[in-house]
Amino acid sequence: MPTRAQPPNKPFLSLANFLPLLLLAGLSLLALVFHWIRIQFNEAVDFSLDWNLFLSWIPLLIAFLARAVSKRFGRLPLVIALLSVCWLAFFPNAPYMITDLVHLSVDYNRDLTWHDAIMLFYYAQISLINGLVSLYWMHGSWRRTYSKSIGLVLLLISFPLGGFGVFLGRIVRLNSWDILHDTQSFFDDIWNSVYDRTALLLSVEFGLLLGTLYFVLWVLLRYRTRWLERSAR
């Protein structure tokens, strides 16, 4: 009985795999252009925007690594679990930039108001896209490593946890790396925030926002995948 030909091993890293990162890098550079224009107004500039945008890249790169590992080496539950914990620690940095819109000061007669509105929205948009793409890659890694049902559970849990992380960053003022240099206080702040009404509000509403946007992204990508599969037949 003839044996089935095995598909050739794909390279661990390839140019095709890097194309999404290159595209998102280009969009992130455009955000810096908006900021450079803002600097030309000779007004006070808050460079935390650039820092927060950089932080949104950390979960993206972690998810990129998890995707590459799960595709190339198959099921490595402990490795993916470790990468998942690291990813979750930084994932809230992506939707966090939506809250930077509160810094917008409105004066309808100033051009600076409109530029700042566009700039803040663009930064938040790119950061959010980074987060959604990272979530899509992690979801795929969970499905390949564990099962479809476990992958779905982890996906659904990620939505409200992302909102809770935004609360910890914006209201409690925790940073992702506080767990390393002040572990006890870090977990104390988390525990004390569990019953906070604002924490519940942000967890639910950010969870709904992330869930809705992710559903749109998933449907579009799945439709594209199926269309390509049918075209190849």
UniProtKB/TrEMBL annotation:
Q: What UniProt keywords are attached to this protein's entry?
A: Membrane, Transmembrane, Transmembrane helix
UniProt-recorded name of the protein: DUF1361 domain-containing protein
The organism of origin for this protein: Persicitalea jodogahamensis
Respond yes or no to whether keyword Membrane is given for this record: yes
Q: Which residues cross the membrane?
A: 12-37, 49-66, 78-98, 118-138, 150-172, 199-221
InterPro entries, from UniProt?
DUF1361
Is the NAD keyword given for this protein? no
Highest taxon listed in the record's lineage: Bacteria
Using the record, list the residue span of the signal peptide; answer none if the entry has no such feature. none
